[in-house]
Design a protein that fits this description.
By secondary structure, the chain is an alpha/beta fold. The protein is built from twelve helices and 14 strands.
């Protein structure tokens, strides 16, 4: 049986996923029991006032250790990372934050005999040689970006800590994540979020990938559910640990634009592919997430139509209120 999770530290808590995940964890485990951390970006008022928050540099052990000891942390959710597009502009920074940060988190968890560590991976772990349709959980991993390299190395490192030290480390390969609350932070799938914002703001958008570019995507409510469901799964049911595919929906940039036009008929989209196109072309078009479904009961709830309706409603409310 997995040990009980009591006090959680979230790294990267100001990021796109981390900010909403922190609030969801506080709702489940209690606000004072979930400690949020970030490196530079100021937290939102809601995040800062709802529970403890600290600025740390996750690649420096002492800054993490201080908070772990102060709050008697037993679980770390390690969301801090440099994403694909930003990572290609500064590969050494991506390596430093993603790899050194991960080993610091794992060593801290091992030495403090923690209950659990969650280190998410990404579809960026895939690359040339990987089947693009219905990509298997266990397949060729030869990424073409530094971000992808660090995710593959991170998966292997996390599984090593499970085998070598018996540490309960878990991870899931996020597809593109779409949210109306926090803008994305420099990933190749950012267009799938920005397109909604610009449909509401300006009724036009210039997309940085081709119209026929198809990638796996997931709405934030499903992302939060997947993460928390994996955290809650009994350890003994898991055959995989740090590399679960999680699927939800796949669509092309053109199909996404067409769905938005059902709600915003005057919306116009231009396509001007840049360096991110080659990255997108190396990633899967759809995922086989049978392992997640069988080992911990994963099942998504949202599709493209329902997500688009919900996204546009939320963004219109924020735009009307002057908060977009």
């Amino acid at each position: 049986m997995a040990k009980e999770i009591k006090r959680i530290l979230v790294t990267g808590a100001v990021g796109q996923i981390g900010s909403e995940l922190t609030m969801a964890l506080r709702k489940r485990y209690g606000s004072d029991n979930v400690v949020a951390t970030g490196r530079k970006t100021a937290p939102s008022k809601e995040l800062k006032e709802s529970g403890p928050f600290y600025f740390i540099d996750v690649s420096k052990r002492e800054t993490l250790e201080e908070v772990v000891k102060k709050h008697k942390i037993d679980t770390i959710v390690h969301m801090a990372a440099i994403l694909s597009a930003v990572g290609e502009k500064n590969p050494m920074m991506a390596w430093d934050v993603n790899m050194n940060g991960t080993i610091v988190v794992l060593e801290c968890a091992r030495e403090h005999n923690m209950t659990q560590v969650l280190v998410p991976s990404s579809i960026a772990a895939f690359g040339p040689g990987t089947p693009l349709e219905n990509t298997p959980n266990d397949t060729v991993l030869k990424p073409t970006t530094m971000y992808g390299v660090t995710k593959v190395a991170g998966e292997l490192l996390c599984d090593y800590y499970v085998r070598r030290y018996g540490l309960d480390v878990r991870g899931l390969r996020y597809p593109g994540i779409i949210s109306s609350e926090t803008p994305p932070g420099g990933g190749t799938t950012d267009y799938a979020v920005a397109i909604y914002y610009e449909a509401v703001r300006q009724k036009k958008y210039t997309c940085f990938v081709r119209e026929d570019t198809r990638l796996p995507m997931m709405y934030m409510p499903d992302c939060l559910k997947a993460t928390m469901d994996l955290m809650a799964a009994p350890f003994e049911t898991l055959k995989h640990h740090s590399d679960f595919n999680v699927g939800s929906m796949s669509f092309s940039a053109g199909e996404l634009a067409a769905e938005i036009k059902k709600h915003v008929p005057e919306f116009k989209v231009a396509y001007e592919p840049d360096f991110r196109q080659a990255i997108a072309d190396s990633w899967p078009r759809s995922l086989d997430d049978t392992c997640a479904r069988q080992e911990w009961g994963w099942k998504p709830a949202w599709d493209l139509a329902a997500m688009t309706k919900d996204m546009l409603e939320a963004l219109r409310k924020r735009h009307t209120a002057g908060k977009l």
